[in-house]
Fold this sequence. Notes:
binds nicotinamide-adenine-dinucleotide; binds magnesium ion; alpha/beta; Rna Polymerase Sigma Factor, Chain: A; Rossmann fold; 11 strands; four-stranded mixed β-sheet; 48% helix
Amino acid sequence: MKKNITVLGSTGSIGVQSLDVAEKAGFGVTAITANSSVEAIEAQIRKFRPLAAALSDAAAAKDLKTRVADTGTKVLSGEEGVCECAAMDGADTVIDAIVGLAGLKPALAAVNAKKDLALANKEAIVAGGPLVLDAVKKAGVKLLPVDSEHSAIFQCLQASPPNKALKKLILTASGGPFFGKTREELKNVTAADALKHPTWAMGAKITIDSASMFNKGLELIEAHFLFGVTPAQIDIVVHRESIIHSLIEFNDHSVLAQLGVSDMRIPIQYALTYPERYPSPVKELSLTDVGTLTFYKPDYETFDCLGICREAVTRGGLFPAAVNSANEEANRLFREGKIGFLQLGELIRTAFEITPEKPDFTLADVYDTDKAARARVIDALRD
Ligand code: NAD
Ligand code: MG
């Protein structure tokens, strides 16, 4: 049976690679969505002929509707339109490759419509972890990690039946463009400096998160929710070559790792074909070409965002949502040249002040926290 997928965030780095995987695997495309990239999504509509497409920006959606009137693809608009695409009949798996908290409601819409969810959008699970997990359980669907580290752990876990012998997870981190620098040296770095990532070509937001290592903090929280381990059971190790994508350790101290060239199409494809494996267009790994693999302890002092995320996930409740939203705001301010690199952690930390202690929370609580955290960051900047 031909498999059909829907791609949320189809015009982004992960979205484009997902459509590439779908094309090579012979999958159909049910729906695609983006924020406002009219030209890019028009080209995708003409190529993949989906049933529907949505742009969250209403003016852009209106423009798109006129442009593709000849195609038979239904054009939807706004967050509701994106959610309607996420829930649309026909797709077996929905890949959520939206950036930021904007991906949470569409993820829930897909799951509630009984679609398997291939999740690249880490902010959704970080901010709404228990809500996403509950919805997945109720709907009886699969939650498949796309983030390369989590795909690696997921693949390692296939090798061992779930049992109490799992001791810890080891997340690898490239260390980003500022690896080895001191805080003094990072005082005046700009977004342009941070956008020179050593191993992965990614969207602007995650590239800045990689430079500040907030990305690894998000991944620590993501791993906690996806694999049900405590934050203390998750180690982070800097591995500059990005060849080992992550590891798991058992209580007998046997360690399993997943390796491959740094190309997101491997984890994307595995999430879309699981439990099967398809041949891949990605290059084979040559260990002798790589030659040397190196490992370092993360520098928690220089990269304070790591400690902030560890504290947030350990405190639980709405704290992960709060630091995620504060980071979305601070990350944007840094990209716009309005704050310095060292202010990122400083501003994000202020989110702890506005977060209520609430172990059980609702979707409305997540959005209240989002508003409050963003407002706190803007206030802190004014002080
Ligand atoms: P990107 O910026 O390249 O693409 C983001 C996509 O989301 C675009 O299609 C954009 O139109 C859409 N979008 C943006 N704002 C939106 C909104 N408000 N509503 C609806 N759609 C919106 O980002 P990316 O690098 O592809 O990353 C996407 C997600 O995948 C992020 O959560 C990121 O952390 C995660 N991820 C990315 C990579 C990578 O290699 N790029 C690796 C692992 C995880
Ligand atoms: Mg990752």
